[in-house]
Amino acid sequence: MSDKFEFIDVEYAAYQESDELYVPSIVKMCIWMEVSRSGFYGWRDKPESATAKRRGILALYVKKSFGILMTRTGTAGSTRTWWTGACRPGRSWSGR
Description:
mainly alpha; 68% helix
């Protein structure tokens, strides 16, 4: 279900930024995707979970690490090189 909600959210934002004359409303998109409006708004207004926050932080570390490796060597480097730099003592990325 959250895939449909995410699709509606992304499409609505894209329409808002475009020069389209007709921008379908969230209500219309919910009808087309056969989901409830209350479900969509509940999903959209829900605070970010702890897992999602951890994944976002990890994504930033990955981007930063590969960005540094790219500028130093011209290549992305190996996973072992990245993992050694990313996992410092006291930091766990398993999420379990």
